[in-house]
Design goal:
It contains seven helices and nine strands. The termini are far apart. The strands form three sheets. It has a four-stranded mixed sheet with strand order 6-7-8-9, with helices on both faces. The chain has a three-stranded mixed sheet with strand order 1-3-4, with helices on one face. Helix content is 69%, strand content 7%. The model has no long low-confidence stretch (mean pLDDT 84). It is rod-shaped. By secondary structure, it is an alpha/beta fold.
């Protein structure tokens, strides 16, 4: 069966070979035709390529420029990004600075408030301190005055004791006739209304002087005091008081209705008038210090000695004491 099909196959092969040769011939013819067409197309392509060459060169140049611009743009973008980062940092710093400034302002306001409160407290404290210092000074002054008064009282007491001992000794000597011509202490030989006690005590320091008749009487008294160590005393000698008696009896014109201290003093024995005038002279009496100053200085060429009821004494020299 296989052998019977071989001739048929061979015939088929021959036909296929012939057909293949035909097809190859056709293919070669087509290839030739295509070759010619390709050559023509190649020439056209080359022409087109030659025509496009300047554009390609220009396009390459532009591409290079584009690459450069793109590179620069990338650099700029990088710098921009860095700038944006720096800007953001700066913005953050500014915001933080604003917040810090706000906090500082708040702290400043709080500090100013505390400072004002401290100033107010300081003012109050200073006022309290000033008041305390003032009170302390007042107390110190009061204490000093009290000490002065105590010391004065002690001195006066001692002087009074000494004067009392001296006075008793002198009066006993008179009663026993050891001394003569001694009348006694001037303050005991005259009197004044108690309203003027302070004024006369201040203005008349000679109230504690002793009145004697003659100089020799006074000398005997001094010897007696020395002999018995009784202390020291001052003496007013009546036989030396003639000029004072005349001045005391001379007419007197009152000044601004101010009384003269001499005219307020009375004595039981007119012989002591000169001694009293010697002790107080023309001293005026004023109710208060302004009145006393007015009386003392109204006549600048003839200042007057004035004493107040409170014991403030203005001398003719202008000095003031007592009070």
């Amino acid at each position: 069966e296989v052998e019977e099909s071989i001739p048929a196959l061979e015939e088929s092969i021959k036909k296929g070979s012939l057909n293949l040769e035909t097809k190859e011939t056709e293919l070669e013819s087509m290839m030739e035709n295509l070759k010619e067409e390709c050559e023509a197309l190649r020439s056209v392509v080359m022409e087109k390529q030659a025509a496009l060459e300047p554009w390609v060169t220009q396009m390459n140049e532009q591409q290079s420029q584009l690459d450069i611009i793109t590179s620069e743009l990338s650099l700029l973008k990088g710098k921009t990004n860095q700038s944006e980062v720096s800007l953001n940092k700066a913005i953050d710093m500014i915001e933080n600075g604003k917040e810090e400034i706000k906090n500082k302002k708040l702290q400043k306001n709080n500090f100013i408030t505390r400072l004002e409160e401290s100033k107010k407290e300081s003012i109050l404290t200073n006022k309290e301190i000033e008041n305390l210092i003032s009170k302390e000074q007042e107390l110190l002054n009061l204490l000093r005055k009290q000490r002065d008064k105590v010391e004065m009282a002690r001195v006066q007491e001692q002087q009074a004791n000494n004067r009392g001992r001296l006075h008793s000794a002198l009066m006993e000597a008179v009663s026993t006739r050891k001394l003569k011509g001694l009348y006694g202490r001037l303050g005991d030989l005259c009197s004044i209304d108690e309203k003027y006690d302070i004024a006369v005590t201040t203005a008349c320091g000679r109230l504690n002087s002793y009145v004697v008749e003659t100089t020799s009487d006074g000398e005997e008294c001094v010897k007696y005091l020395r002999k018995y160590s009784l202390g020291v005393a001052s003496f007013i000698i009546l036989e030396k008081m003639g000029s004072y008696e005349r001045r005391a009896s001379a007419p007197y014109e009152p000044i601004n209705e101010a009384p003269r201290l001499f005219d307020l003093i009375t004595t039981s024995n007119p012989k002591f008038t000169g001694a009293i005038y010697y002790a107080v002279s023309d001293t005026l009496v004023a109710s208060d210090l302004p009145s006393a100053q007015k009386l003392a200085f109204q006549d600048k060429r003839n200042r007057r000695r004035v004493v107040t009821l409170a014991g403030q004494l203005i001398e003719t020299s202008g000095t003031m004491s007592g009070g």
